[in-house]
Design a protein that fits this description.
39% of the residues lie in helices and 26% in strands. By secondary structure, the protein is α/β, with parallel strands linked by helices. A hairpin with a 2-residue loop joins strand 1 and strand 2. The two termini are 32 Å apart.
């Protein structure tokens, strides 16, 4: 459902991503882990077709996102880090807007809006200006718009960034529910998120893939997941 084949992105001599290759099968919830500046967001933008690769191919549900992005996007829900919302709108008007943009029929849209509002627990702020919403509610609203068209694949960039512990627990609960039916690639640099939600981890450092395998294998190393993260992404790893 998600496939990266030799993905690279160059900005002059700087490589934001270099020859990244992995795939995520239907029904998997995979954590995409790395330190700040490792290339996680760039890789996700390449996968979604938001930016074009310098080399390689990104596919969603079999569609090449450089050549057939519109058809691929039908299957994709994307939540970028600090995703843009329109502060003068309400969750109601924003979701109506995205339903129009997605070409959803009037017969389907209200049922879908009701469903994502319930799933993301937005009922209490549904008619409140987005500018007045907390960070947690804005994240939930971003999640709701990503889910609105019932995509098969979700790509989520730091969905718990800036949230308090209660909000993080709510997002984790939502992720587990979604993971029962969706294919999810979840970017984070928070190790607790990986252990709490995923069974497999893909790790990137300085634009390169450095690990792809079970979370348990890293967690069972001496020093646990924290030690493995330091080994794979620390100064010694970068110099190797």
């Amino acid at each position: 459902m998600i496939e990266a084949v030799g993905l690279s992105k160059f900005y002059g001599p700087f490589a934001a991503a270099r020859e990244v290759t992995f795939s995520v099968s239907q029904g998997e919830l995979v954590a995409f882990l790395g330190p700040n500046g490792a290339g996680k967001s760039t890789t996700m933008k390449l996968l979604t077709g938001y930016i074009a690769p310098s080399e390689g191919v990104a596919r969603i549900a079999g569609f090449d996102m450089s050549k057939d992005r519109l058809r691929g996007s039908v299957h994709l829900g994307y939540l970028p880090e600090n995703g843009p919302l329109y502060p003068d709108m309400t969750p109601d008007s924003l979701l109506q807007f995205f339903a129009d943009a997605r070409g959803m029929s009037k017969g389907d849209r209200q049922a879908r809006i009701d469903a994502v509002v319930e799933l993301c627990m937005l009922g209490s702020v549904f008619h409140k200006p987005i500018s007045k919403l907390s960070k947690g509610y804005r994240q939930r609203l971003g999640m709701a718009q990503a889910l609105l068209h019932e995509p098969d694949v979700l790509i989520l960039d730091e969905p718990t960034a800036g949230l308090d512990p209660n909000q993080i627990r709510e997002v984790r609960r939502t992720m587990r529910r979604l993971g029962e039916k969706k294919t999810i690639l979840l970017s984070t640099h928070i190790l607790q998120e990986v252990e709490a939600m995923a069974s497999r981890v893909i790790m990137i450092n300085e634009g390169r893939l450095v690990y792809d395998g079970p979370v348990a294998d890293l967690a069972n190393e001496k020093g646990g997941l924290d030690g493995a993260f330091k080994r794979l992404t620390g100064a010694a790893a970068a110099a190797a």
